[in-house]
Amino acid sequence: MSVNFQKVAIVGCGFVGSSSAFALMQSGMFNEIVLIDANEEKAEGEALDISDGVPFVSPQQIHAGNYDDAADAGIIVVTAGAAQKPGETRLDLVHKNVGIFRSIIPEIAKRDFQGILLVVANPVDILTYTALRLSGLPESRVIGSGTVLDSARLRSKLGEHLHVDSRSVHAFIVGEHGDSEIAAFSSANVSGVPLSDFCEMRGHYHHVESQAHIEEQVRNSAYEIISKKHATFYGIAMSVRRICEAIVHDEKSILPVSVMMHGEHGVEDVCLSMPAIVGADGFEQHVPIPLSAEEEVELQRSAAALKEVIAKEGI
Length: 315
Description:
The protein is an alpha/beta fold. It is built from ten helices and 16 strands. The protein has helices at residues 15-27, 40-51, 67-70, 94-109, 124-135, 148-162, 195-201, 207-229, 234-248, 293-313; strands spanning 4-11, 32-36, 61-64, 73-78, 116-119, 142-144, 169-170, 173-174, 182-183, 189-190, 193-194, 253-255, 258-262, 268-273, 276-279, 282-286.
């Protein structure tokens, strides 16, 4: 089956799925957006609502559909799953959402899907691994949204701290999209200037304390938002848009997506986030950013925590 990169399908029309559809509609990247949900009326309602905005952007068709309608899509975005509740960790969602994926992913696979599968539902690293195993798709074509949002949060916090444009800050969150994630401060820089040097240039000298505080803010960001409004969806919707841009325009952008690891940094047979080149073929290769000895140890701990969950679920 041919692949139409002017077409995207979104499976799951909850807060994240509908917000992602809205962000993608505004981007003008696609001629067709297909919304799929177990509740067909919900998908139809979201499609009708978002379609009302089409006259303000570019011509495109937005409609509810089914897995047959998604078969030739260039990208299928999977957001379906139980939402994270206040006080609940992303890993607490595992059993429920692995079960949901056991019904969704085979439906996609049996239609000979040839595009890119973008997993967004949480816990995203476990579910990316699950999607890879259940779909039989090549590893390059199964991507998790990973720590793209976390890294954006880190850049934003560093930009605020240093009073500079966050787009000039180059820094990554690596590892799990969750409680064991690591801020890779050792490789962070502001327009090529090492982070610690730039901090001192801006009058900040307490690096260890500042970095610990910023990392904690980033790690707890989702929990804070969920405690106040019970869900997070705008930030991840923009992350979905950014990843789709890299794929549709074959940008070869470096993004910290969740993909299968094969010995990089001593991590094997688990999906987690490291900077990677992303283009029309999906994941191309990892970018080997330097990590400190402590960051290496923390990354391996993060991988071990994920592998323990995978083993318990029997994926």
